Amino acid sequence: MSEPDDLAGTGLPTRLPSGGKAMALHDGCPQPRPEWVPENAGGGFATWVMQGARLSGVVSAQNGPPRRRTLTTEDYVQGVLARDPPVLARAITLIESNAPAHQAQAQQVLAQLLPHTGRAHRIGITGIPGAGKSTFIEAFGCHLTGSGQRVAVLAIDPSSSVTGGSILADKVRMEKLGRERNAFIRPSPSGGSLGGVARKTREAILICEAAGYDVVIVETVGVGQNEVAVRSMVDFFLVLMIPGAGDEMQGIKKGVVELADAIVINKADGDNRARASAAQAEMRRVLHYLHRMTEGWETPALLASALTGEGVPEVWQMTEAYFANARAVGSLTGRRRTQAVQWMHALIAESLQSRFYASEDVKARLPALEAAVADGRMPVLAAALALLGG
User: pTM for the full model?
Assistant: First the structure.
């Protein structure tokens, strides 16, 4: 059988190599229409087939999709500043990489972008699974984009136990917000880190700020009370609760509620409205006895419904009032300075731990000491000090 004829100037075949049957093209498009496409299918039936050249039964990689161009440091910087979403996504991928070469380039990119950061509202949102975080963030984000704000959402997804990657559930739930021109959603795998917060989230915030986003929202997995990691990287920390789940009583035990700058009782609609009002009143009593997280700001408890949108504008008005107060008393600048220093110390500790376990001496002695500890032949502290040389 002869080789398939090509469309003039396109290199695309008019028929499949197997079967030799000519096919009708898509409506005005230089693509072959497979046999399984309905005869009466119109333009709404989207089917695209890329033909590869078979050499001894193997599809040639030369005719496959082109590889993405490797970006230089300048490409990353200019792309982020130009607000190019694909480059922005690739820049975040770069800083999330653990490859030494990528880490070195990521730091060069961040160093050039730092003068363009610091102007966004950094907001952390957490809550127990089922509190409606993604739905609330979508309603909140759509309200902001509707008022002319540019919003970036860093959704910390649970990590896949198979691949270690992000499950991407949050991006699926925020479909409406994802279609907004002034919104950017980036799911990142938690990787089992503290509070479900990816290790590189702080740097991702800076990248989004340099890209000109007015509000950067960090959504956590909500896997317990270890959300202090989020508190250490945002200006404003919002805790979502739901009525009738006993969350208001957990406030008496402090925990994550003590870190909050605002409490929002979500799902305050329909039959839940009365229970939500009761939970709000209880939370207000609890908050009265807790230490204030931000100087000059009394943590409020508000009602909202992500489903109907009721209360969402009021949450943003409250958030704006918080930032106005924080700037007036100088707590916003002070908090960011403290966070930057804490971040540096955290990275030092992380680097020291990595270098410690990479030491050939430690790797040689560690198995024997682990066995001694596991068998009860050696105290844990003594084994640790032996490795540390103390």
Answer: 0.76
